[in-house]
Amino acid sequence: MNAGRSFIARLACSSTALAALASAGIASANPVRWQLNMTPGVTATSQNVQWLHNLALGICVVIGILVFGAMAYSMVKFRKSKGAVAAQFSHNTVAEVIWTIVPIVILIVLAVPATNILFKMYDTRNAELTIKVTGYQWLWQYEYLNPSNPAKNVEFTSRLERSSDRTRQLGSGMDPFKVKVGDENTYLLDVDHPLVLPVDTKVRFVITADDVIHAWWVPVLGWKQDAIPGQINEDWTEIHQPGVYRGQCAELCGKDHGFMPIVVKAVPKAEFQTWLAAQQTAGDAAHTASASSVPSAPAPAAVAASATTAPVAAAPVAAH
Amino acid sequence: MATYGTNPATHAPLHRDSLHDDVQHGAAHDDHGPKEGFFHRWFMSTNHKDIGTLYLLFSLLMFLIGGSMAMAIRAELFQPGLQFMQPEFFNQLTTMHALVMIFGAVMPAFVGLANWMIPMMIGAPDMALPRMNNWSFWILPFAFTMLLLPFVLGMFGIGGGGPAGGWTMYPPLSLQGGSSVAFMIFAVHMMGISSIMGAINIIATILNLRAPGVDLLKMPVFVWSWLITAFLLIAVMPVLAGAVTMLLTDKFFHTSFFNAAGGGDPVMFQHIFWFFGHPEVYIMILPAFGIISEILPTFSRKPLFGYQAMVYAIASIAFLSFIVWAHHMFTVGMPLGGELFFMYSTMLIAVPTGVKVFNWVSTMWKGSMTFETPMLFAVAFVILFTIGGFSGLMLAMVPADFQYQDTYFVVAHFHYVLVTGAIFGIMAGVYYWLPKWTGHMYNETLGKWHFWLSTIFVNVLFFPQHFLGLAGMPRRIPDYNVAFADFNMISSLGGFAFGASQLLFVYIVWHAMRGGGPVAPARVWEGARGLEWTLPSPPPHHSFVTPPVIRDGDLAHGDVTH
Fold it and tell me: How many Å apart are CA B555 and CA B530, to the nearest integer?
């Protein structure tokens, strides 16, 4: 009836509005308090992923309304206390066929875009810059690979920034709400040396680990990848918006799994070149010192063409 | 009535129609000859009812232990910053919480329900292998002592503490543990042996001991669900045994199954583990599906809708469960084709599961419903398990899964399907059958209180975790950025209240076992159908000593036209 129809129409409108609100830029680059939905992020990948998530969520909400609505209706209407007399039907083959076929169609509606998005995420061709990411217990190491002149590789470690580290100690008496950069609370999400990347540049990552399995994840980039000792995984990203983006290790890796965050600082290309050049100069000058500060960093092996190859056996690592 | 011999215990003549014999011949007392001593009855039991009781009480104890661990976890996560424990201990808590709940609470509870109900539902006198049945149970207290000891001793400063690499035990991390790794592996072996023997027993019982007239496609759905679950158990528990044995040899005997430096592969462990692990989660839910399919028709006073479809759906789910395992590993770096295959196969499981949900709703539709506690839990199961199924469908989609994997979104998903799914299913079954077992009605008012408190607070506890995952909070971390503080606090408050509510359940069960509450009739619930409801409440220690004569109307699904 009319009243019911307009209620449903209003409900649909407000849920669309909510979805739009959630998917709009109101969800910022890093977690915000009371955040309800996935971030749209700062890459095409992250936006595709959020779109797919919203599609799946929307379909589930509609199915839920139908199924739970039918249950609620029957619990009100078909109560013995209201004098309902039970029907005795026990099967209906046509119904079974319908509610087998319709879900399959819905699954296809979800699987097609999911497949397309996944194809794009796997395409690591034509990257302009390659970063090697190595997970350690409990920090990350980044290396900017320069294939034409490996002596100019820039390499450094990135670990939990000190005020977070002091605050998080058991019984520190310090307040996590006070760990800030400007207005942004960065407790457990800040590092000493962030990964600096140029915007509008396809950056390829080769990801591995030295000891146990870790995972590299920055939500606004739209993907995560396990960092596995003895295996090199390959990913790519292209950031369109300058900013500081924060992430965390996403695979249990021991006692400080929660304390090895990731910070990506996306800057304009020119600024990136200047920064990189400065690192290279500093690297030349302190070459021996920086190499020995990292425990048994494996030399960059000849990187397999793509993540589709079998796991690569690493050079023998020092026994633990 | 024709006689054909005498009852060996009582020497009373045996009549053909012993369906009603157990009622007539004073079944309320045990006809055993000399009375069994306590030790003999409980430690050397070959009786499916007593062994069922042992499993259920053991499971309740483990539920409280695992629940206490969860309370400690939620206490630490109540606010940002570390307040109570070191991160290493937090990792032990999360590891032990999962192991205790999965292997100590959920699985033994389902086996206990199987032991109690399957023989009575099919007109059998007991399980096919009663002595092996005893051993299946009694392995468990020893296995859990072994599992819990390093953790408990570690809390008192003795030894290196319990395992802390997650219940999934991924190497190389899990191999960094100390001797607790060996204890954990031996405990898993023992639990596995217990499950395998139990599964063999269940299959042998169902296939061989059905009374004449109890055809396979007339069996209760609960019996079907356990028949299929038993095959899953036999198929995959040995795989887990293999995986953990390789962990053991990697750690202690210098093999390199999972050590890249020695030519092995850490990811291979994940494949082997999850080949067990995915069917395992279906092992933990299929019996619950069976329980719900018993309860909804009873309280709707209407036959189960689509009996055959329901059986085939369980079988389809079980089959599909073998080809989806790598959806737990979407971020390891599998080739694109592999990721796509597992995405499609995982999404497919939604189809038979959906059929089951629609059939349950259709059972309720145009029924004549009353809402006693078992029905309340069954209805809550359908709604809340479906919500868990929705998040499962979302997790199946690989590009989105890259954002969900290893976050609280996954934690929310599996707690919805395991707590509001498996645990609520178990509780529904306990409330449903407790009057049959004890001969006394439980306190219905308290039961409803337990239901409402549990349902409200389980949602306060787990629903916000979806938001935490979507906002970017990883799992298995003891501390977090302040952006995650609000929902963590809400979740913890829900957790404390949910945990406290379970003490009510303990009281309700104890009270019914003690004989509080009115005497229960044989057919406890007006709409109940099936052989178990022809026996008195409580049933005799040995029921269906001779096979009952079955008329189709005695069975819930005796009508072969559906």
Answer: 5
Residue pair A15/A36 in contact (Cβ under 8 Å)? The answer is no
Q: Which residues of A touch B473 (CB under 8 A)?
A: 31
One-letter identity of residue B248: L
Among candidates B260, B479, B483 on the partner chain, residue whose Cβ is nearest the Cβ of A33? B483
Give me the sign of the Cα torsion angle B7, B12, B13, B17: negative
Compute the distance between CA of residue B100 and CA of residue B141 in angstroms, rounded to an integer: 12
CA distance A129 to B491: 43
pLDDT digits (tens, 9 = 90+) for B49-91: 999 999 999 999 999 999 999 999 999 999 999 999 999 999 9
Residue percentage of chain B with pLDDT more than 90: 91
User: Which helix (H) or strand (E) segment is A266 a member of?
Assistant: strand A262-267
Interior CA angle at A54 toward A49 and A59, to 5°?
A: 130
Q: What value, to the nearest 5°, has the Cα angle with vertex B176 and ends B172 and B181?
A: 100
d(CA A217, CA B409): 15
Q: Which residues of A touch B263 (CB under 8 A)?
A: 313
Burial of residue B357, with CB atoms counted within 10 A of its CB: 0-12 exposed, 13-18 middle, 19 or more buried: buried
User: pTM (2 decimals)?
Assistant: 0.90
Single-letter residue type at A159: R
Cα–Cα distance between A43 and B403 in angstroms, integer?
A: 14
Residues 6 or more apart whose Cβ sits within 8 Å of residue A187: A164, A167, A168, A176, A177, A179, B80, B481, B482
Is B351 in contact with A107 (Cβ distance < 8 A)?
yes
* Nearest residue in chain A measured CA to CA from B79: A176
% of chain B residues with pLDDT over 70: 93
Contacts of B318 (CB under 8 A, 6+ apart): B228, B229, B231, B232, B279, B282, B286
Q: CB-CB: which of A85, A168, A248 is closest to B82?
A: A168
Which of A228, A246, A249, A309 best tests the B interface by mutation, with the highest count of B CBs <10 A? A228
Residues of B annotated as catalytic are 97, 126, 167, 194-195, 278, 280, 282, 293, 327-328, 353, 356, 475
User: What is the phi-psi region of residue A83: left when phi exceeds 0, alpha when psi lies from -120 to 50, beta otherwise?
Assistant: left
3-state secondary structure of B178: coil
Tell me the pLDDT tens digit for each residue of A217-275.
999 999 999 999 999 999 999 999 999 999 999 999 999 999 999 999 999 999 999 99
- Residues from chain A that touch B166, judged by Cβ atoms under 8 A, are 252
| Contact call for residues B223 and B293 (beta carbons, < 8 A) | no
Is the C-alpha dihedral spanning B516, B117, B363, B106 positive or negative? positive
Q: How far is B492 from chain A (nearest CA, A)?
A: 15
Q: What is the pLDDT of residues B228-261, one digit of tens each?
A: 999 999 999 999 999 999 999 999 999 999 999 9
Give the strands of the sheet with A195-198, arranged side by side. A195-198, A262-267, A243-249, A214-218, A223-227
Q: B550 or B332: whose pLDDT is higher?
A: B332
Contact A311 B379 (CB under 8 A): no
Closest residue of chain A to B390, computed from CA coordinates: A60
C-alpha atoms less than 13 angstroms from C-alpha of A162 in its C-beta half-sphere:
0
Q: Which candidate in B327, B340, B481, B555 is best for mutational testing of the A interface (most A CBs within 10 A)?
A: B481
